[in-house]
Specification:
Helices cover 76% and strands 0% of the residues. By secondary structure, it is mainly α. Helix 2 packs antiparallel against helix 3.
Length: 242
């Protein structure tokens, strides 16, 4: 459930199948996925719901235009605010679920396990509604909202969003590199960049090369003989030996 509703690229896959435009859906989903790299709600913190942003953006963009660049601009114009709204909805859902947890704890203390399980089932429902409600509103009123937005927003602003859509993935990759051992595997990073920039190798080919190198490194490390940290004492004699 988390994989299919949280990651924008997985949301784009199912949205593309339903909407009948897989290419546009995957381009938009990939854009939001790159923006989401390196972002995680660690320790209960709330982050933008890029899965929700991709879902709403894909639906509205495909319904609005058939041009891929215009579709990206529309998806960003609609999806980014919805993704930011996801922060507030996530906080609200967690507040409600704190009361759910307290009620379940009271039922547990009373030994009423059936009631406890019934109460705990409300938790996932609340989180589901935090995504389902804004999605339903955008599906019902999405076309009108986008028409109003596109009529009010000037062309230079939508062009700026399109440019930002090309720049924001860089921010996502930079955030991802901050939490990865980049210095240790800098050679692999440089090789990947060279293959992509100078040899125009597709991402699948680069991924296969990376997998081959990682597998070789893994097998090499596994086959290394284990060494002990203890020191071996050698009897070299001293002045008192006879």
């Amino acid at each position: 459930l988390v994989v299919t509703t949280w990651f924008p690229i997985m949301v784009a896959l199912f949205a593309g199948i339903i909407m009948g435009d897989m290419h546009t859906a995957m381009v938009i989903g990939g854009t939001f996925q790159l923006m989401a790299l390196g972002v995680a709600n660690i320790g209960g913190s709330s982050v933008p719901n890029w899965g929700l942003a991709a879902l709403v953006g894909i639906y509205v963009a495909i319904r609005t235009t058939g041009n891929i660049e215009e579709a990206k601009a529309v998806a960003l114009a609609v999806g980014v605010p919805v993704g930011m709204l996801g922060i507030q909805l996530d906080v609200f859902a967690k507040i409600l679920n704190s009361y759910v947890a307290q009620s379940a704890q009271k039922a547990l203390n009373a030994g009423n396990f059936k009631k406890m399980n019934q109460i705990l089932a409300i938790g996932p429902l609340i989180f589901g509604l935090s995504t389902a409600i804004p999605t339903a509103l955008c599906v019902i009123f999405g076309d009108r909202i986008v028409s109003v937005i596109l009529n009010i927003v000037p062309q230079w602003f939508t062009d700026g969003l399109s440019i930002a859509g090309s720049m924001l993935p860089v921010v996502g990759i930079a955030l991802l590199l901050q939490v990865m051992p980049t210095k240790k595997y800098l050679t692999m990073l440089i090789l990947g960049f060279v293959f992509a920039a100078y040899f125009n190798l597709p991402i699948l080919g680069i991924s296969l090369i990376g997998f081959a190198l990682a597998y070789y490194y893994f097998t090499t490390q596994m086959n290394k003989p284990t060494t002990t940290n203890g020191t071996v004492a050698f009897d070299e004699g001293d002045d008192f030996d006879e």
